[in-house]
Amino acid sequence: MNRIMNQIIKIEKPMIIAGPCSIESYDQAIETAKFLKDLGVTHFRGGAFKPRTSPDAFQGLGKDALEIHKAVKRETGLMTSTELMDARDLDIVYDAVDYLQIGSRNMHNYSLLRTLGEQDKPVILKRGMAATIEEWILASEYIRKAGNDQIILCERGIRSFDSYTRNTMDIAAIPIMKQETGLPVIADPSHGTGKRELVLPMSLAALAAGADGVMIEVHPRPEEALSDGEQSLDFDAFKKVYHEIKSRIL
Ligand code: PEP
Ligand code: MN
Known about the structure:
Blueprint: E1 15-19, H1 26-39, E2 43-45, H2 63-76, E3 79-83, H3 90-96, E4 99-102, H4 110-117, E5 123-126, H5 133-145, E6 151-155, H6 173-181, E7 185-187, H7 189-193, H8 199-208, E8 213-217, H9 235-248
Parallel strand pairs: 1-2, 1-8, 2-3, 3-4, 4-5, 5-6, 6-7, 7-8
Helix pairs in contact: 1-2, 4-5, 8-9
The structure holds phosphoenolpyruvate and manganese (II) ion.
């Protein structure tokens, strides 16, 4: 279905999108969403269809997670986002959340990009983990040319020779993408580093470089998380990060 919207998205600054890597249960999602809402966060994230490197790893709750997203929205009023991995799931994902995310592994999936270009909901376009800046710009053009200018770019780290961190966050890409595309750019220091202790410094670095916001993974009990626990913040740690961001970034 074509639902087109031509307008560059205006976002509150800094836009803070937070939530678990994966939606694991109603209780986990609601507990997190209520905590975030009470803190003042406006955007909730949570994976329903998870692009995992191993086919044996937790793949997400799929449709059940989308129902949980709807409940989160109903009960908290937060704006919600989740990744669309497969165009066959477009209608159910479209109905469940406010923002549609394209993950790093799908940045080069041009038919999926075109499909999202035909929608009237904002798209969060993550940078491919091995994508050049030029390729990332062109990926955003696929969405734009299909009719949707509501794009938020997300720097989430790229592969480099160094494996000390999960990825290498390309801070320079933030001002470059803003200049080249005129689109809002956010940063994801959770996937960008893979280490929870680096989430605060890299959030501040990204925002200082002009990022319009950050996306951060938060879990009530990271040690029990079914995905990305090691980079997820618990509530106390996230609260500190949130207040640091709010107090330092005007
Ligand atoms: C995510 O944000 O849930 C995710 C899988 O990130 P990425 O696509 O950047 O790896
Ligand atoms: Mn994750």
